[in-house]
Amino acid sequence: MSPRADAGERRARILLSRVCEPGDADACRLVRAHSAAALVERLAAGTLPSAKAQDWAERLPTADVDAMLRAAEHEAARYIVPGDADWPACLGDLEVFEEETGERRAGAPFGLWVRGHGDLSALSTHAVAVVGARAATAYGEHVAGDLAIGAAQGGFTVVSGGAYGIDVAAHRGALAADRPTVAVLAGGIDRMYPQGNKDVLRRITELGVVVAEAAPGCVPTKSRFLIRNRLIAALSLGTVVVEAALRSGSLNTARWARDLNRQVMGVPGPVTSRSSSGVHQLLRQPEAVLVTDAAEVIEQLSPAGTGLAAVKRGPVHIQDQLDLRSLQVLDAVPKHSGATTRSVAGVAGLTHTDVVQRLAELRDLGLVVVEEGRWRLP
Amino acid sequence: MSPRADAGERRARILLSRVCEPGDADACRLVRAHSAAALVERLAAGTLPSAKAQDWAERLPTADVDAMLRAAEHEAARYIVPGDADWPACLGDLEVFEEETGERRAGAPFGLWVRGHGDLSALSTHAVAVVGARAATAYGEHVAGDLAIGAAQGGFTVVSGGAYGIDVAAHRGALAADRPTVAVLAGGIDRMYPQGNKDVLRRITELGVVVAEAAPGCVPTKSRFLIRNRLIAALSLGTVVVEAALRSGSLNTARWARDLNRQVMGVPGPVTSRSSSGVHQLLRQPEAVLVTDAAEVIEQLSPAGTGLAAVKRGPVHIQDQLDLRSLQVLDAVPKHSGATTRSVAGVAGLTHTDVVQRLAELRDLGLVVVEEGRWRLP
Hints:
homodimer, alpha/beta, Rossmann fold, Arc Repressor Mutant, subunit A, 2 domains, 9-stranded mixed sheet, two-stranded antiparallel ribbon
């Protein structure tokens, strides 16, 4: 647990959230190693030799922390950093991943803009990411909504990216269940992107939170969407992909979930639907589990032995419980005209003694009737 | 390899195929241990003490081998036994399974009735079972047909149960590809069951074979369907289930495939479709592999490193090949009005040197253009 940051450190991180690209691995590492205040000081003094640092230094004067804070305040947004009460501890896994693999794809964030009444730390202890295609089908949106309602009612926070299609269907499902949900944006917290989901994003702030790593004013770019995906994966115990074409960004979120040791799940669809082809490729990987409803998602995310989903069995017929020999006897009993025990035994190819006993059992189960020593179906 | 059976032994097996229930584990074992001729002799002499043996003995006089042979001949069917040139060696795995597990569900068959021009032994060296629900949807029948066409064109024999729905769609697919297919019936070889598939079953005999373990005249009962399923699984390298409700018999075939160390595959469908719910439950088991087309089935059934299916990738965009930083640079280039290298570097948050190099690469890829030192999208 990091110590609580003072006001100077907090302002320095806000400054850097504008000067550096969100998730920039070098920036994230330097802030962790030296504190943002020290980094800003060294940038300003020009004592960091790298070309990248020089570039950041050049941009320092253009970043106006007070203007960013005013923009955030206008949206009732705040900036949280590691050490704050509502900072989600699970994001630390991004740091662990970076250290263990040496991969420089993206760093653990050094701060986040959040907007809404929810406590991101509490919300992310039991969260599931439900993500998928923007160009979703009615089937995908229906399933995503159902999954989200069930997961939310089961006590899980639904995390997604606020985008059109599957994302917003998932958020709407959680809202329909009157439960908090978390939207992680690729651009600034003051840009409720996409515009068409503005109302849903506003409603999310009532119980949940909208989150952004980029500074206020930042536009959502393609690279920022990809970088953003690691936060969706890290904030959840698992990621469910509902509809994804072969190159869907949601598969990138699933990869992050796998890399961070989260559960990876997918909802199948028709193999004739392009919108499901990416999910099917995902489900051919050993780490991914096929899920068909919220109960199976919850089972996957619950500690071993808890949250078990009932195995789907369909309607139970007494016949299905019979062993093969009793089934043979039942098969040998005629529908209309009665047959003697001897004749049933003959047709069934079983011994007389065996058949006598099994016919009595079948009669007790109501599967056969006997009249004047002749057996028939009821 | 068993020695070739003489005429007496063959007649004894035909006799037993009528007297004993198809696949009866005790009968199969006794025939293997003593020969059918010896077993019939002992049954007739009454020297076998078990109640079951007494029952078989009682039925001996009612079985007319010559009548059965005449019925078979009328249908151009023949009886094959282990040791015959066209006896499929793979059925020996049923014996191995029985010996290794001690399970008495069903034995390895001691003979089969076959009808058609195909050589069952040759056909079963490269075979795939395509099975599924009788009450299939148009989606399921379409996919089963496509799979069967592709598998057949890929050199695989399609094995199925000749039933309505998925089974017959699979047989029809193989026939459409002008390739042999194998139908394994639950009743006698003289009963082309179900009636509605009579024409397809006839066409199967032209290049392939129709197979039955039960004696001519036997009706297909529920227990015989379940027993029959082990032959479908054993005759193939793997079983693909296309549509199955939660209690579909095709899941029983998949279990046999698993028990016999065959590949178990399933084709997903909408989670909202009851006809796919059994397949989805199957695909949640670790042994089952999700497949979406014939290429993936063939890959699964081919020796490691051969028959590889192309991983589905969708259309390739040059942008998707870029690393994250080049993508950042591309994101920073304006659409219409040109921007200086310095301005692009500022927006991208990268160093001038880095951006100069990346812009040149992007230009070479045709993703950006430069005019009088100003960069824009083409």
